[in-house]
């Protein structure tokens, strides 16, 4: 199937049956979302170290592309906090240099990230999303939110703090400059934060605060009082152009672009799923294509990497969006802002944009998830904690790498020591259950029934066989039944271990029976000759049938050459 085929389906999916009432709903939802998008886009651009106008550029083209290629009806694409932080971290070496080079590098970063996403989508590799576990993602986003808030302390306090990918240098710089805190800036910044919090769920709160602060900046001449303002903001729409960057810089940005491609896809895909209604499907591969081309479009109009943010997506859905056309309406309002109102933003205090960022990202610090994890899966607090601490200490790139590594290591350790259970028959039934969970389950004298709850492979085969050996010794069993219902795969190393163990059992006069073996594993055993070696009559569909065979079988004579001393 060509990668172009899903694109056509995605477009037809929301246009089929589209009615006038749907357009009216999209018009209202798009306008409502734009009220949040315009101030957030400028604020997030500032977080990325870019001129605020770059955020509006990044909010302009992506919704148009996503409307054609996307599969989520309500996802609102554009600048988001996490991508902005990742952009700032990636471009940190350029922060002290030429502004034009920094802006061009940000656009190139968007194009590279988009290319990674589009290629990954075309190759149908959307399953890569599975390599970021939820604990790692929550630990990462919580730490990133703290880094974002810390990075905004400078504008909120009237200080010029150096940019840093880690938390400690920011705190040290803050402590050194604390005496230089600018009172009026603090008053305005804290006042803006309190106003945004007090306005609660009012959707236009960010725009209202921006308008009032812009008017105040002009009427009260706040710049003369020492407050930092946006300054001149160019008007008009950007013309598409390739960013002026050399090949060396482009190659240097590639690792950061790959990270941004993964994180932005994760954020957008999870946001799209969160607002999907019954019967609606969000296709990961098609979403990669849509986000990829949206990012490329953002880079071509002097924007920077974008994603689908949960906050604006939720607003879009709650406002009644029926299709991606709502995003087109939002983009049209952004274009109108650029064409008519951009120069009016010159007197907007930067502290107000920092306040918008702080309030928006504070919700990303997910304490409730930590409590839930502690209650349900305490061991998964380990990758969460590692990701959280290393992201704060080392920065977003290394933090995420450490988190993914810890998560994979925990998974490997879990598979090398998988769960096993001794089974007994529930009274009056043919059902066998874990004797530790069902104390009334009846065991069979001389027969140990053990269930394996994992595939057999080179890293756990020795452990599992040792477990079986230990159970046999504890029960002084003459027969062992392996309930293999949880064994969905077996490799050649495990086959070799199993063959050696079978010989060991025979030398000690102990029979082996296998129940509930899955078809693919049964095929492997047959091709290896182990089925014939053990005997077809030793395989049963159910544990009960295997136990009956083991109970009725005569006790085999031990081989005098046995080397294993069985109790």
Automatic annotation (TrEMBL):
**PROSITE patterns found in the cross-reference section:** STAS
- Lineage in the entry? Bacteria, Pseudomonadati, Myxococcota, Polyangia, Nannocystales
* Descriptive protein name: Sulfate permease, SulP family
State the InterPro entries in the record.
SLC26A/SulP_dom, SLC26A/SulP_fam, STAS_dom, STAS_dom_sf
Show where the STAS domain sits.
437-550
Any one GO CC term of this protein is: membrane
One GO BP annotation is: transmembrane transport
Give the location in the cell.
Membrane
The membrane topology of this protein is: Multi-pass membrane protein
Which domain of life, per UniProt? Bacteria
Pfam families recorded for this chain? STAS, Sulfate_transp
Sorted alphabetically, which PANTHER family does this protein's record hold? SULFATE TRANSPORTER
Task: List the transmembrane segments.
Answer: 21-38, 44-69, 76-96, 102-127, 139-161, 181-199, 206-229, 249-269, 325-345, 351-369, 381-413
Which residue stretches belong to region Disordered? Answer: 546-567
The primary site where this protein sits is membrane
Keywords linked to the UniProt accession: Membrane, Transmembrane, Transmembrane helix
């Amino acid at each position: 199937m060509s990668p172009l085929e899903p694109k056509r389906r995605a477009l037809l999916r929301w246009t089929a049956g589209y009615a006038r009432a749907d357009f009216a709903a999209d018009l209202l939802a798009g306008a409502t979302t734009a009220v949040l998008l315009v101030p957030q886009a400028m604020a997030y651009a500032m977080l990325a170290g870019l001129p605020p106008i770059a955020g509006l550029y990044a909010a302009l083209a992506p919704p148009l592309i996503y409307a054609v290629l996307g599969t989520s009806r309500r996802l609102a694409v554009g600048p988001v906090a996490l991508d902005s932080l990742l952009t700032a971290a990636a471009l940190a070496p350029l922060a002290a240099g030429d502004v034009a080079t920094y802006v061009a590098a940000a656009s190139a970063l968007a194009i590279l990230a988009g290319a990674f996403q589009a290629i990954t989508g075309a190759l149908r590799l959307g399953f890569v999303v599975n390599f970021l576990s939820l604990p790692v993602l929550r630990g990462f986003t919580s730490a990133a939110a703290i880094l974002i808030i810390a990075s905004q302390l400078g504008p909120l306090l009237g200080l010029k703090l150096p940019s840093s990918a880690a938390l400690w240098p920011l705190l040290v710089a803050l402590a050194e400059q604390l005496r230089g805190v600018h009172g009026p800036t603090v008053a305005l910044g804290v006042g803006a934060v309190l106003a945004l919090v007090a306005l609660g769920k009012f959707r236009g709160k960010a725009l209202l605060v921006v308008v009032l602060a812009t008017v105040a900046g002009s009427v009260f001449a706040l710049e003369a009082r020492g407050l930092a303002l946006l300054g001149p903001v160019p008007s008009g729409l950007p013309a598409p152009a390739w960013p002026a960057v050399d090949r060396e810089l482009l190659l240097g940005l590639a690792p950061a672009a790959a990270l941004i491609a993964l994180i932005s896809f994760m954020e957008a895909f999870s946001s799209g799923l969160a607002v999907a209604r019954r019967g609606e499907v969000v296709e990961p591969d098609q979403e990669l294509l849509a986000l990829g081309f949206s990012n490329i479009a953002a880079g071509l109009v002097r924007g920077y990497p974008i994603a689908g943010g949960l906050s604006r997506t939720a607003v879009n859905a709650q406002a009644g969006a029926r299709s991606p056309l709502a995003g087109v309406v939002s983009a049209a309002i952004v274009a109108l802002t650029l064409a008519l109102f951009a120069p009016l933003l010159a007197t907007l205090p930067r502290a107000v944009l920092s306040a918008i960022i702080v309030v928006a990202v504070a919700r990303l610090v997910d304490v409730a998830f930590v409590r839930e994890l502690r209650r349900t899966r305490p061991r998964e607090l380990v990758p969460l904690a590692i990701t959280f601490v290393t992201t704060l200490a080392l920065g977003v790139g290394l933090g995420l790498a450490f988190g993914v590594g810890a998560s994979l290591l925990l998974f490997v350790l879990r598979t090398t020591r998988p769960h096993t259970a001794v089974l007994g028959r529930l009274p009056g039934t043919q059902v066998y259950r874990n004797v530790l969970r069902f104390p009334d389950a009846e065991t069979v004298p001389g027969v140990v029934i053990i269930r394996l709850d994992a595939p057999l492979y080179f890293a756990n085969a020795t452990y599992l066989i040792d477990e079986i050996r230990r159970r046999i010794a504890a029960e002084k069993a003459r027969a062992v039944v392996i309930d293999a219902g949880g064994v969905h795969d077996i490799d050649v190393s495990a086959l070799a271990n199993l063959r050696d163990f079978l010989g060991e059992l025979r030398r000690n006069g102990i029979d082996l029976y296998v129940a509930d073996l899955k078809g693919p594993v049964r095929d492997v055993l047959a091709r290896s000759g182990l089925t014939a070696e053990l005997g077809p009559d030793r395989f049963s569909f159910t544990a009960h049938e295997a136990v009956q065979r083991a109970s009725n079988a005569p006790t085999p004579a031990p081989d005098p050459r046995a080397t294993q001393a069985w109790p």
